[in-house]
Write a structure and sequence with these properties.
Blueprint: E1 18-24, E2 27-33, H1 35-40, H2 51-54, E3 59-62, H3 68-74, E4 79-83, E5 91-97, E6 102-109, H4 122-132, H5 134-150, H6 154-177, E7 186-190, H7 191-200, E8 207-211, E9 217-220, H8 222-240, H9 245-254, E10 260-267, E11 270-275, H10 303-314, E12 317-322, E13 328-333
Parallel strand pairs: 8-10
Antiparallel strand pairs: 1-2, 1-6, 3-4, 4-5, 5-6, 7-9, 10-11, 11-13, 12-13
Helix pairs in contact: 4-6, 5-6, 7-8, 8-10
C-alpha cells in the first residue's frame, strides 16, 4: 500500500510558480517548472537560464549581498524581490537549495501584502526583534537563575510575565509592519500603574522614575498603554544618556555615570512623560515618529512610531515639546 504522506509532491501541486534548476558551468538553468510559471511569465521553458525570468522585471533585488544569479549558483538560501512586470504586483522568490548544484525557486505574490517600499526595512525589523526583546529576556533569565538558587516559586511568575511581554512585543512589530494597531479599551485603567509596570519591563538601571502630579485613570487598552510607556522610557534612557563633553568630563572626574531622570505627570486632560536629557531639536520633532527613523547607528526607529500609532488608535493626541530642563517631553491628551 502506498504511503500517502511519504510520496514526493510534483511541482504542479503547488499553486504558486515554482521552478527547479541545476547549475551547469556556472549558469543556473531551468530543469522543470509548473503551470503557474507558464501563466505568470512569458515564454519560459526548460533549459533556459533562470536569469531569463529576472530579465522580465525592471526591479530585481536580493536580500543577500550578491546579485540573484550568484546566490542561485552558490545555493544560498536568500530571497529575491521582483517588480515592474506589466500590471502584476511585486513578487518574492525564495531560493531553496537541494544540493551543491541544484535547487528550487519558489515565487510568492506580494500584491496583497504591505508596501515593501514604504515598510520598515527587513534589517530594522530584525533589530527590533533582537533589541526590544532583550530586556524581558534578560529579566526572565535572571529570575530563572534566582528560582534555581532559592527555590522561590515567585520567580517563575516573573518569568511568565517576561514571556508575556515578549509575545506582546512580537505582536507590535508585526502590527507596525502592517500599518495598523487595534486596541481593546477597558474602563478605568490607571496611568500610574501602567507606568510603574512598564518601568519594571525596561532596563532602567541608569535611570530614575519620578511620578510627579497625581495621575488620572482612563478608558484604554491596558496592554497597549504599558507598551506606550515602555517605548517612551526606553527612548528616554537610551537618548538621555547622550550628554555633552562638559557633563562627560564632570562624570569622569567624579567617577560616576549619568543617571537619567524620567518624570511622569498629569495634565488637565491627559499625562506627560519627560526626561532631563538633551532633548529633540525642533527640526527632528516631526521625523522621530516616522517608522525607521533613528538618530543612532543601532537604533530600530520603530519605538516612537509604535507610540504614535497607539495614541492614534485610542483617539488621543500626541505632542512632542521641549521640557523646562531641556529634555524631551511627550504630552498625551485624551
Amino acid at each position: 500500500m502506498t504511503d500517502e504522506h511519504s510520496r514526493a509532491l510534483t511541482l504542479d501541486e503547488f499553486p504558486n510558480p515554482v521552478i527547479a534548476y541545476t547549475v551547469e558551468e556556472g549558469v543556473p538553468r531551468i530543469t522543470a517548472l509548473n503551470e503557474a510559471v507558464e501563466s505568470a511569465f512569458d515564454s519560459i521553458s526548460g533549459g533556459m537560464p533562470v536569469a531569463t525570468i529576472f530579465e522580465q522585471f525592471s526591479v530585481v533585488n536580493s536580500t543577500g549581498s550578491e546579485d540573484p544569479v550568484t546566490h542561485l549558483s552558490r545555493g544560498d538560501c536568500v530571497g529575491i524581490y521582483l517588480d515592474g512586470i506589466g500590471d502584476e504586483g511585486p513578487l518574492f522568490a525564495r531560493i531553496i537549495s537541494a544540493d551543491d548544484d541544484s535547487g528550487y525557486l519558489v515565487f510568492s505574490d506580494l500584491s496583497e501584502c504591505l508596501d515593501v517600499a514604504e515598510a520598515p526595512a527587513i534589517d530594522q525589523v530584525s533589530s527590533v526583534i533582537s533589541h526590544d526583546l532583550r530586556n524581558p529576556l534578560d529579566v526572565a533569565k535572571a529570575h530563572l537563575r534566582a528560582a534555581r538558587e532559592t527555590g522561590d516559586a515567585e520567580h517563575f511568575d516573573a518569568v511568565a510575565d517576561a514571556h508575556d511581554r515578549m509575545e506582546q512585543i512580537i505582536r507590535d512589530v508585526l502590527t507596525i509592519t502592517r500599518d495598523q494597531i487595534t486596541v481593546d479599551p477597558s474602563e478605568n485603567v490607571s496611568i500610574e500603574a501602567a507606568a510603574k509596570d512598564a518601568w519594571q519591563s525596561v532596563d532602567t538601571e541608569s535611570a530614575t522614575l519620578n511620578i510627579r502630579e497625581e495621575l488620572p485613570t482612563v478608558t484604554a487598552d491596558a496592554d497597549r498603554l504599558q507598551r506606550l510607556f515602555e517605548n517612551l522610557f526606553r527612548n528616554a534612557v537610551e537618548h538621555g544618556s547622550d550628554i555633552d563633553d562638559r557633563l562627560r568630563k564632570q562624570e569622569q572626574e567624579t567617577d560616576s555615570g549619568r543617571v537619567v531622570v524620567v518624570s511622569v505627570g498629569g495634565l488637565e486632560d491627559g499625562f506627560y512623560v519627560a526626561d532631563d536629557g538633551q532633548g529633540i531639536s525642533s527640526e527632528k520633532q516631526n521625523q522621530v515618529f516616522d517608522p525607521g527613523y533613528s538618530t543612532q547607528d543601532d537604533g530600530t526607529g520603530l519605538g516612537l512610531a509604535i507610540v504614535d500609532r497607539i495614541v492614534a488608535a485610542h483617539g488621543w493626541e500626541l505632542t512632542l515639546t521641549t521640557a523646562a530642563n531641556g529634555g524631551a517631553r511627550f504630552e498625551i491628551r485624551f
